[in-house]
Amino acid sequence: MTHTTLPQHAEHKTPNPYPPRPFSLSPSPPRPIPELPLSPTDRQRTAFRQDLLDWYDEHKRSMPWRETDDPYRIWVAEIMLQQTRVGTVRDYYHRFLEAFPTVGALADAERDEVLKRWEGLGFYARARHLHEAAQRVVEEHDGTVPDTMDAIEDLKGIGPYTAAAVLSIAHQKPHAVLDGNVTRVLSRVFAVEEDATTGTAQRHLRALANELLDPKRAGDFNQAMMELGALVCTPSTPLCDRCPLQNVCRAHDAGMEEDYPITPESEPVPHHDIAVGLVFDDGDRLLIQRRPDEGLLGGLWEFPGGKQEEGESMETACRRELREELGIEVEEVTPFYTLSHAYSHFKITLHAFRGRLADGPPEAREDQPFQWVGIDELGDYAFPRANRRLIEELHRRREEPSLFD
Q1: Residues 335 and 280 occupy one common structural domain
Q2: 91: closest CA among 117, 71, 126?
Q3: Contact 314, 389 (CB under 8 A)
Q4: Are residues 246 and 307 in the same domain?
Q5: FRET partner for 178 with CA separation of 20 to 30 A, picked from 138, 198, 211, 358?
Q6: What's the pLDDT tens digit per position in 317-376?
Q7: 110 three-state secondary structure
């Protein structure tokens, strides 16, 4: 992302309450670290409520969800923005609201239609929960998004962060948000010597954020904190010379910005080899299966298959999975396509095989129905991104005389 130099506010000329230590060849004792829970100084409170908001007013990005106070639209945006980049969300946000302009329209929609509109955005439980929550809003709240913390947190998929964001931005209610960006800003400004991922640290940081919150501009304050973390107080190479909080930041004063927040070391990312079957019937229709509602990629359609077991080839894994999942045998099995894909916590190599139904018919599990569909009909169903790449390859090869030559 390209950044332009941001002008410094006059307030930044306030003397630093933590002046740099004089240079010395001998080590100096470490500055005492405040114990949690933390309480801000008057100067820190002023910096957050004045300097930060001044910076936000001047440098905030233009975003469609910042142009409305409709709690439903803000809610949709906040759900989409979880673990997803702003640039990716923009187009999805517009398309989703074109299809479901009100909470009632979303509640009335079929789940498959909602998942199709979400296709490619990832973390599909968000879409399922949003749909279920919209139905409850219609049934229990007359189609009006609740405006109290207890009521809105009672909806599926809404936790403390989303509840605080919707209530503060739509209704200016004084609830501070705490996400990854806000955690990073607070951890650096207050040099928090605690694993920021623990429940205890999160409670302390949330309480600190609420103490710093400007009750007169609750929504803007929350968005300013998140904007600062996204644009300036970034995970690596933070732009401290552009930060409106640099004069009250303990990590900056010590030159240790990138040491905070404190987090545990990352675990190695697991890798799995997955075999799937592109199974055709005599009418050249493809067999697809819907994943269980709960769990990874719940409710999406996919080509049937599963993980390779120790000691078996990928083709053997494909045949075994088809037999176990659907009770079918296939013939004329040949490799079709291999691709790599990364999820949030693991990576896969997907090995696709094409073949024809030899013995069936398929037997569906109760929570995993199947369909026979033509290649041209695959676009009507919501698929995970890795399966969508297989569909793209199917279309690319359609001009060949036969997939089975």
Answers
A1: yes
A2: 117
A3: no
A4: no
A5: 138
A6: 999 999 999 999 999 999 999 999 988 788 999 999 999 999 878 987 767 889 999 999
A7: coil
Is residue 82 located within the same domain as residue 114? yes
pLDDT tens-place string over residues 261-273: 999 888 888 999 9
Whether residue 255 sits in one domain with residue 279: no
Same domain, residue pair 237 and 276: no
Which helix (H) or strand (E) covers residue 277, if one does? strand 271-280
Q: Are 95 and 117 in contact (CB under 8 A)?
A: yes
Q: How far apart are CA 240 and CA 257, in angstroms?
A: 9
Cα(170)–Cα(66) distance, rounded to whole angstroms? 10
Single-letter code of the amino acid located at 297: L
110 classed as catalytic: no
pTM: 0.78
| Residue 1 covered by a domain | no
List all residues 6 or more positions away from 268 whose beta carbon is below 8 Å from its beta carbon. Answer: none
- Which of 259, 287, 312 delimits the end of a domain? 259
- Domain of residue 254: give its range: 35-259
- Given 205, 234, 259, the domain boundary residue is 259
Q: How many domains does the chain have?
A: 2
> Which residues pair with residue 178 across a beta bridge?
none
Residues 6 or more apart in contact with residue 6 via CB below 8 angstroms? 55, 58, 59, 232, 242
CATH number of the domain residue 240 falls in: 1.10.340.30
Are 11 and 43 spatial neighbours (Cβ–Cβ below 8 Å)?
A: no
Q: Of the residues 35, 78, 332, 366, which is catalytic?
A: 78
In this model, does residue 218 exceed pLDDT 50? Answer: yes
Q: Is residue 11 part of a domain?
A: no
- Strands 329-342, 305-307: pairing is unpaired
Q: What pLDDT is stored for residue 122 in this prediction?
A: 87
Q: Does 30 score more than 60 pLDDT?
A: no
How many Å apart are CA 382 and CA 124, to the nearest integer? 10
